[in-house]
Design a protein that fits this description.
2 copies of one chain form a homodimer. By secondary structure, the first copy, chain A, is mainly alpha-helical. Chain A contains 10 helices and no strands. In chain A, helix 4 crosses helix 5, helix 5 runs antiparallel to helix 8 and helix 9 packs antiparallel against helix 10. At the A-B interface, helix 6, helix 9 and helix 10 of A face helix 6, helix 9 and helix 10 of B. Chain A binds a DNA duplex through helix 1 and helix 3.
Chain lengths: ~200, ~200
DNA sequence: GCATTAACATACAATCTGTATGTATCCTGA
DNA sequence: TCAGGATACATACAGATTGTATGTTAATGC
């Protein structure tokens, strides 16, 4: 019985190989870093050759982009899922989304991929664009809704969301580094509460 | 007249060579990036050989660290200088320091060195430690003083300073990327004002 | 079925990093 | 002051990595 000799369509082969490469790359990129992981190591872990890698991806950076893309998508989905249940109450939705964000960012390697190597390798603009494209809109829409409801002073939404997002990111990094979670959540909530309070 | 044949002490030679290497590396690391800049290119620009580089620095990363260290020190000094004139008024000092920060971060290459490549190559902890060591305490002390004065609700200072610092950093990146400066400054001031307002 | 294309594997060229080794210059103690 | 050692380099080398070019096998379209 020739297990692997089964006849497969080109699409199936492509999908499987790409998935194997992305999974192997994700594992190594997060265990070490983008720079410290070589393509020979990746293809060995994926069980293919470098020929396959360079057939499916333009270069090492393109493979990294695919990994980061998946990760950003997953995080965005988790946040959206948590927040959409409170669509009618923007304040609660934002809180739920915030919790979901920190939970999502505890998956090992995500902070490195999305907050350290990602911006350095792909540029911050690329990461911003990904977030936007994956519909990570809980924060922006939450803020906008709270402004509409008069809960927050009216301000340029996009910049404010970016700056708050940066604070979220830094909190995730600090928490992963072992800093006291509660202190960072307290500080973050104080910032958000401050925005809300100052509307009155 | 043999211009360069002048007899120099070892210390002078070391100081000059290290300075040349750091200057050349800074230029190239910021024009391209850490990863895209090779040591042969650096030493060529510095007018020495790779032997000199590896005599004075353990490896490429150590040279990068020296570059980032200088830059962090310079930024911290500019902020301190602007803020110390208002030592008696923490609120004003913080505002002055904030202005100085954005001015300092407009020096070409600083955002890449301190906010993108730095954290990725050296780790965020290393950057935090640098800031701390260079006495970049305007933000922390400003917040603490405002809490003491009852202008801001009492909160864990260090985490709050880190999160606000992250927002500052993101604003600097956005501004450098060409986003409307005023919107980001407005959003940032709203966050800080919010903290102050909510104390009442 | 057969020509074409896709999916790889293998081989190669160009770099790059870090180290080992060699040499000139400086410093130090007798 | 000068001889021996240390310091500041330059040169040469080994190993590894990236991207490309080429070859081969398997699927697909006509």
């Amino acid at each position: 019985m020739q297990a692997t000799k089964t006849r497969r369509s080109n699409k199936d082969r492509t999908d499987a190989t790409r998935a194997d490469l992305i999974a192997a790359a994700r594992k190594l990129f997060t265990e070490k870093s983008y720079a410290e992981t070589g393509t020979p190591e990746i293809v060995a872990a994926a069980g293919v050759t470098r020929g396959a890698l360079y057939h499916h991806f333009a270069d090492k950076q393109a493979l990294f982009r695919a990994v980061v893309e998946m990760e950003a998508k997953a995080v965005a989905a988790e946040i959206e899922r948590a927040a959409e249940r409170f669509d009618e109450n923007p304040g609660i939705a934002l809180l739920a989304g915030s919790d979901a964000y920190f939970t999502a960012m505890r998956v090992p390697g995500r902070t490195r991929l999305l907050l350290l190597d990602g911006p350095a390798v792909l540029g911050r603009a690329a990461l911003d664009e990904m977030d936007l494209r994956h519909g990570n809109r809980t924060l922006r829409e939450g803020l906008a809704a709270m402004m509409d409801a008069g809960l927050i002073r009216r301000l340029p939404v996009e910049p404010l969301a970016e700056l708050l997002g940066a604070a979220f990111d830094r909190a995730a990094l600090a928490i992963e580094a072992g800093s006291p979670t509660d202190d960072y959540l307290t500080a973050l909530h104080a910032i958000i509460d401050g925005l809300a309070q100052s509307a009155k």
